[in-house]
Amino acid sequence: MKQYFLNSKERTGSFYRDGEDAPNILFITVDMISADCYHKDRPLSQVINTPNIDSIAEEGTSFNNAFTPSPLCGPARAAIFTGMHPPYLSNGERSPVGMKIDLELHDAIFQDYLKRVGYVLKHTGKCHVGVEKFIRTFGENIHAWDRWGPPTEDDDRYLAYLADMNVKLPRYRKELRGLQIDKLSPANSFGGWIEQSDGEDFPLDAHYSVFLAKLAVEQIKAAKIQSPGKPIFSQIDFFDPHQPYSIPSGLEGRYEQIRRVIVPPKSFEPFDENNPNRNKTLDLYKQYWGMYDEELVKDYIACHLLQVEVVDHALGHMIRFLKEENMWDEMAVVFSADHGDMNGRLAMADKGSYFIPEIYRVPMHVKPPSSKNVTVKDCGELVSTIDIAPTILAFACIKCPDAMEGDDLHKLMIGGERRPLTQVYQTGVHVGTNYGFAFQFEHQDRHMFYGYNVTTGHEELYDVNLDDQVNLFEMEEFLNQKPTIVELAAELLQSDPRWAGYWASYRLHNARFLPINKTDMQMLKPI
Predict the structure, then answer these.
(1) Which residue, 49, 80, 90, 377, is most buried by CB atoms nearer than 10 A?
(2) Full-prediction pTM beyond 0.90?
């Protein structure tokens, strides 16, 4: 086993490599995708058409219980890159002054280790964890934008791409809008169907996601010229299917097919503003999105599925190129997402600072090089996006760095066991400010998701495997489980200093379930 240092001169960032395997690696993420689009238990997963994404799963393993530790773009991506629970809990656009919002230059991300052992790094699309860190790791020629939405109008390369196709910038032909509290005035945009700025149809291959995939192809071509013989790591981070949607021309028939079979979620219902027991956090988000109309919900869901089909079409360009170049078979491929989407449940779109499992669940498909065995095609083991970094590093024979909390998922792909996984889910700042933590546990063969809201003490309990979620703590059967849950939470929160801030209020909100002791409630006592 050979020792390396991320900084050889200062001998810092020690890590080890056991072997010389260095396959080309492709890492693909989508942004804010609903389990409706990929989870086999969801009816709409049988409606959506994603042959290219499916091919990754067919040649590898699908992890059917994969979750992100944060349902917000920036923190979720920071967790993926560092292989740890996120170091901050908010996207930069909405954070109050004084909050940490980006990765620091000294933060080690898995791409740093690949670069150190000789990989040529290429990236295109969304980064949203701070440009400085990405430039330092990937190099000055990187194509990464650090914002929540794509820079379609100020991306020079995209504008040149459109000009070469003789296509003008897009505008909305039909736009979906939520309503304000008066249920009359237009509110937030969900996007919709696009056309060229002169009213002409907008071609599918002119779409920004297709541009990103084709740019990734050009980057791989460049890498083979720049560093012939060196292994390539290519990362592509799509914005889609994040709203506001941008459905190009030519998908009208698919829209009609999809919309005909959409049934609004059971939890979609008119607002009951007089219900004293309603969840105030969810109430805030419902008001923010203004999904009062059932037809709007159907259109939103249809657009979400269509946008995933656009991404799949884009990936088709990349996969065909890799196969034509005889690179695909021995390439390691990981496909996942930063977080989920409510997709009309509880009359909500998007994600936020709350604990519905729908926004924590993500797809996870891992295709190893064909020379590596796969015996488990569908894995139900609980896994996390913090497992992505150790898994990718393992393909390059790099031992998981001590700081990383995840594990190499290839162990599960060959029928083995992973090291124990501690999952702590955290909320922060989005539309509203709502800090809290959550964790999962098994109860009578049910997979449960428990969430605690710090400020209010409001507690939530969900069955992860249910399609449409309701807070089970509203039922007497589950209130009886409260002492057991408090015991589990107390053990978790005292196990790591990172969760100590939650423990301070949690022990007060649940004092009646905890033993009286003589410890200092301040947790810190001067001597």
Answers:
(1) 80
(2) yes
